[in-house]
Amino acid sequence: GLVEILQLRTSLTPGRPLLVVGPFALRNWLREVTSLLHAPVEYRFVHACAADRDPVAISARSRCGLLYMRAAPATHCADSWAIAVRHREGWGLVYSGDTRPSEAISQLGAEIDADCRILVHEATFDDTLEMQQEAISKRHSTVSEALHVGSRMGAWRVVLTHFSQRYPKLADIRGAETQGAVVAFDHMRVPFRLLPAL
Predict the structure, then answer these.
(1) pLDDT tens, residue by residue, 188-197
(2) CA distance 4 to 80
(3) Beta pairing class for 92-95 and 117-122
């Protein structure tokens, strides 16, 4: 996990902390966990909504070839954020995190070049009436809601993630609005060059 990555980075390159961008709850958790470790762990935390203004985050973003990184509030729990990045090679990626469908996330994606706009969106629940009600009460999205967010932002591909372990039925994405949809699974890796084949 993240702590292991930070430990490894600290041991390999002491004095060069890794940048961690996220919500305050992540910062607080990292402080608590790393205070219990026997070896030092170095990192620099930047809140998600400040990453586009923070000089260290801007420098790291530039080294990674990213033209920008922006965040928008997600509708889940307090301090939840979706994030978008755009790379100098032309591709852009929006990651929703846990959320209800959101106009802010659609707008975040609309800022990315349309030629290669990829949305990774949670789709915890299927579209049955019972699961739609669960999605609303638990502040998650259904498959069709995630696909609709992708459609509104003009996503080239929508990668559906975060399927509930409690409801093991695989989501059925056959339908009118599913062109460019990909159903993800745990530990899935897809090189960008293979996205057109999916």
Answers:
(1) 888 877 766 7
(2) 23
(3) parallel
